[in-house]
Amino acid sequence: MSREQAAAAVERQARACAGMDAGLYADLLTRAAGDVRTGGPCATVIVGYEDAPADDVVSLRLLGGVHALVLSGRAPELARFYPSAGGAYRPVDASACWAAFRAVVATEYDTLRDWLRRPPQTNEVGRANLLLAGLLHAVHEAGGLPVRLVELGASGGLNLRADRFRVEAADFAWGPADSPVRLPDAWRGGVPDWLREAAGAHPELTVVERLGCDLTPLDPGDPDDALALRAYVWPQHTARAARLAGALELARRLPVRVVAASAADFLAGITPRAGTLTVVWHSVMRQYVPADEWARVTAELDRLAVAGSADAPIAHLSFEPHPWEAGSDFQLRARLGTGPERLLAAAHPHGLPAWPA
């Protein structure tokens, strides 16, 4: 890929950031694209990654590395513009912010090259809003059985604790009132009747196992891994950062197991369990899975669906773009056993707010 093509990829990410209330990143990436074209520090630091597939989102890896430096106090001049570090950003600050950012890229080459090897892992806590709604639906349909949660692409496993989060909307609340993770204004256009019914029937859930997989799992209890999770939350998204902080606190109280494995290999070891509802879920991870691997995942999900029974049911929940193409809506879909897949809701890619299907 030519330098021009690499710059164009950075510009595409800039436009995506602009569309997701991240003007700081949109402005930085727009200028970074020019820096790549002219052979500046941004071009130097991404050498060897110009041919990376679009799904590798190299520009987000670079931004995450710089953000980690800001959060750890190693980029004080740039921190003045990062709300996540107590700073503030206005469009009038764009030139000064870019100068500070460019200086960090120029002086922290080794650190940022290490970050380019990391896949972005937001472990977005807001997506639990959809996953939890689907879980309540599945539990209600399965007659209130204890739950075994299984997550594909779990990252740090934060959303495996979703039943301990507090969801709030107009005339609706579910979850522990004292939870450190609050998901406010969770629904737009009213909470759907199926969710009200399920939540009313199951004010609490019994989760007997929490298990996930990821190619490169993170440990929320490890300071470096926790920093990585924080660094991939965009600095202007302070509400997301607050949810993440609460989830990290909850993770210290409630351990889960996330194994290093591909989704298909991991699922191959899962079987139904008598007296338990096994729920396999995933959120905004399919884009990182090659097509041949996803075909294996689908085959394993079908195997599980057939192997399930009334006493050991299987549910599959997904919060992914649908249909699977750029610009599609992000949808919550549920399949119980071998039954048809059901569209339950749609939502912002970060999970808040959701709206009835």
Mean pLDDT: 95
User: Could you tell me the strand content as a percent range?
Assistant: 15-25%
Please bin the fraction of helical residues. Answer: 40-55%
Global shape? globular
Number of beta-strand segments: 11
**Helix and strand sequence:** HHHHHHHHEEEEHEHHEHEHEEEE
Intertermini distance: 41 Å
**Structural class, please?**
alpha/beta
What is the spatial order of strands in the main beta sheet?
6-5-1-7-8-9-10-11
Oligomer: single chain
Unreliable runs, pLDDT <50, ≥5 residues?
none
| Largest sheet composition | 8 strands, mixed
Computed over alpha carbons, the radius of gyration is 21 Å
Secondary structure tally, helices = 13
What can you tell me about this protein's structure?
- By secondary structure, this protein is an alpha/beta fold.
- Helix content is 41%, strand content 17%.
- The protein contains 13 helices and 11 strands.
- The longest helix is centred in the C-terminal third of the chain and has 17 residues.
- It is globular.
Q: Helices and strands in order, then pairings?
A:
Elements: H1 3-18, H2 23-37, H3 41-45, H4 58-71, H5 76-79, H6 94-107, H7 109-116, H8 128-141, E1 147-152, E2 166-169, E3 172-174, E4 182-183, H9 193-201, E5 207-214, H10 223-231, H11 238-253, E6 257-260, H12 263-268, E7 277-283, H13 291-307, E8 314-322, E9 329-336, E10 342-347, E11 354-356
Parallel strand pairs: 1-5, 1-7, 2-4, 5-6, 7-8
Antiparallel strand pairs: 2-3, 8-9, 9-10, 10-11
